[in-house]
Amino acid sequence: MDVNKCLGVADNLSSIVPKVKDFGRVKTIMDALERNMEMVSAKKADISIQLELEEQRPGKKRKREVDLWIQRAGSMEDRVHKLGRKVKETHFLLRFMLASQVISLWTELNILHEKGRFDHGLTQVVKPARGYELRPGELVGQASQTKSNEIWDRLMKEEVPGMGVWGQEGAGKTFLAKHIHDRIVRDCPRFDGACLVNVSQEGTIGTIQTDIAKYLELDLTAVSAVYWGARLREALQGKRLLIILDDVGRPYSLEEVGITLARDGCKLIVTSRSREVCKQMNCHELVHVPHWSEEERWLGYEAVDDYAWER
User: Fold this and answer.
1) Which of 14, 101, 119, 170 is most solvent-facing, going by the fewest CB within 10 Å?
2) Are the beta carbons of 241 and 193 closer than 8 angstroms?
3) Is 10 in contact with 83 (CB distance < 8 Å)?
4) Domain NB-ARC: where (predicted)?
5) For 123-179, what is each residue's pLDDT tens digit?
6) Furthest C-alpha separation in the chain
7) Of 244, 190, 185, 195, nearest to 218 (Cα)?
8) Cβ–Cβ < 8 Å for 226, 198
9) How far is CA 78 from the centre of its chain?
10) What is the 3-state secondary structure (H, E, C) of 158-198?
């Protein structure tokens, strides 16, 4: 409700103050203020429910301005309720002494309501410190667990900067790579995090660079594409990151991409259908993933769904 309409006076807010000394109108404005506070409180409740739903999604975090607005709205509720009790309990001849407080609170509430629009959303995307978990599903069967442990054990060797995981299409290379990725992300002191890039058979150096840059939250567009490799090398320097290049169809120059491997720095896993591709990409350790038959899977060796064994 508009104060000026309530009082039947001019639009200038300053003209209200003298008139509210009319004892009865102080309570009238206070009633309108409390109704407006009810609307703001309802908005606060709606925002809180929406935040709860959005923050359940990975990487979503409420904006600080939203959190601050909710806190101020809660504080405003207390102030309005306390002032409302004073106006109701005070003798009507003395209510004019509360007029300035009522007008001041009205103004603050209007400003608070305007700042609660949040046209650009309530949350922002925040990457976890070590990266996102991919959660490909559980390892089922002794064979898959054994193969995962084999990859992990070789990866943890200091003298192994890069390793290849190769096998036919559908053998489960991507599934195993995602499990290694998530073990790194959850908690592995050796690495700062893990980045998986789906290269695909038609991938290019540019697409690989772009995906790694997104993980690093690095803007490559500020320079010409010819400098992207140099920018990535600079950004990766000093980091202990596991980079997984998945489903690589042909060999790529790591130097051209901008990846430098080191014992106490970044390491690499390449998954490919070709053993030779892995070898040509500086993969000193090679792990073969056999293609288990449907009969063997049903017997419990690799009882996972078709989606999990997409590579």
Assistant:
1) 119
2) yes
3) no
4) 145-298
5) 987 777 788 889 999 888 888 899 999 999 999 998 999 999 999 999 999 999 999
6) 94
7) 195
8) no
9) 34
10) CCCCEEEEECCCCCCHHHHHHHHHHHHHHHCCCCCEEEEEE
Residue 98 DSSP code: G
Question: Would you call 201 exposed, middle or buried from its count of C-beta atoms within 10 A (0-12, 13-18, 19+)?
Answer: exposed
Report the length, in residues, of the chain. Answer: 311
Question: Which own/partner contact pairs does 37-40 have at CB distance under 8 Å and 24+ positions apart?
Answer: 37/76, 37/77, 37/80, 37/81, 37/109, 39/113, 40/73, 40/76, 40/77, 40/109, 40/112, 40/113, 40/116
Q: Which residues, listed in sequence order, are joined to residue 166 by a DSSP beta bridge?
A: 272, 288
Spacing of C-alpha 288 from chain mean position: 35
Residue labelled with tokens 């442990």: 149
Coil/strand/helix, residue 299 = coil
Q: Which region among 20-24, 167-171, 192-196, 223-227 has the lowest average model confidence (pLDDT)?
A: 20-24
